[in-house]
């Protein structure tokens, strides 16, 4: 299934491992991920597109009857946002029909779930009570009194369950799961008990021992079924606890000393072009209110130094944000140094987590996994870019001047349309946009080809399909590229962006290999940090391959290796 094209401002459910889908809205794009802010908590995170789902069409599927205040607040806030914006941002054909009804009806949904559950449970219990008095019989008075006592005991037991049991079940079982209990065998057993009492009042039965035996069996049955419901409630309560967001998992988001040092280097870079960065909106970052730098304490435990003293973070431009990151990084690194040197006690420091409940090896492993995940994202992006280039070559080979295979070209165009790309990829490869733009008017070189009428008709039909698919792909290009206002033509506006992109690369003195691995705008923070990583990787590789530094003296075509003194 084709994944939706999310954009900034969309209202979604965001899936995070260990939590139920949580209402959120997208605040920025971050490569293949999206930065989201969670309603109800105000926390932010970076989520993959496959873990995002539009709110309105998935509300019934994902909404849980949890009693957490922040969870309830999250749904109230997203409902207000949906009403204000007139929808959740989903532009798919089936999304707009239900927006108005969903928004109008959902405001009271959370408040009425428990009431509806209690009402349904009450109705089921009432149905199980005997509505008719025992019929008059010709049995002896002793037996009649005994039977009436049995009926009275059953009624008392059922009334007690009607008043007490639903309350207990309601406390331990979420409203959406309560139907599982109301459908349990207990209701049927209660009906059978009433039927047995009625049958015992018939004049044909004269066995005085039977009511006593039935009474004992009934009490045991009631006890067994009550135990069954309590066990079911405990199981469901455990399931609800597992689905409820665990606070502990929200407490920390590890950052590395290297990333903080890179923040300082980046801030120095930004200061050199203050005006440029003050005119730019803040770049997306993987922010979290609970980011910490791990530090080993004198006790041997791993603690954490909190980065952010206030939350949420709001900045008007990239310059101010870079300066903030620099200030935070210097403060946290200084605190870590003092803690490791033992020149300051934890009591004298604020925003210290004394135990993050991870070993030093566990911290290293988490950091390594995070870095590996980031590299995987970059590699996947480069693979996608390579696939786009491959399809470009295939399409051109299929639609040559000497011969053409429009049917095969159509298949490649469909593959291209299914790829998820952004404006940076297109800016790096303007020729792909030009090729698709021309294919919107493709008719082939039929004047030079000697084709019979049947072949010509078939080719004409296929060429029309190529034009239609090219138009569709070109439309996707338009969606991926954000043009400045007052652009009358997409291609002209896009060409201006490409020229600026190339000028930035030239001014930054980027090599062809640097441009090839670009996954963001050349002047962006992410591109700067990526270049730092690449330089460090290259340095480590050179150090590993050349334990003894060497100077290469090039003399014509000969190279002479000379050890450094």
From TrEMBL:
PROSITE patterns: PWWP. InterPro entries: HIVI-bd_sf, LEDGF_IBD, PWWP_dom, TFIIS/LEDGF_dom_sf. Residues 171-180 have a biased composition (Basic residues). Residues 149-170, 185-226, 531-541 have a biased composition (Basic and acidic residues). Residues 227-242 have a biased composition (Acidic residues). One of its GO terms (cellular component) is nucleus. Its main location: nucleus. It is found in: Nucleus. The keyword Transferase does not apply. It comes from the Eukaryota. The keyword Ribonucleoprotein does not apply. Residues 8-58 form the PWWP domain. Residues 94-112 have a biased composition (Low complexity). Residues 79-242, 531-565 are annotated as: Disordered. Pfam families: LEDGF, PWWP. Transmembrane segments: none annotated. Keywords: Coiled coil, Nucleus. Belongs to the HDGF family. This is PWWP domain-containing protein. It comes from Psylliodes chrysocephalus.
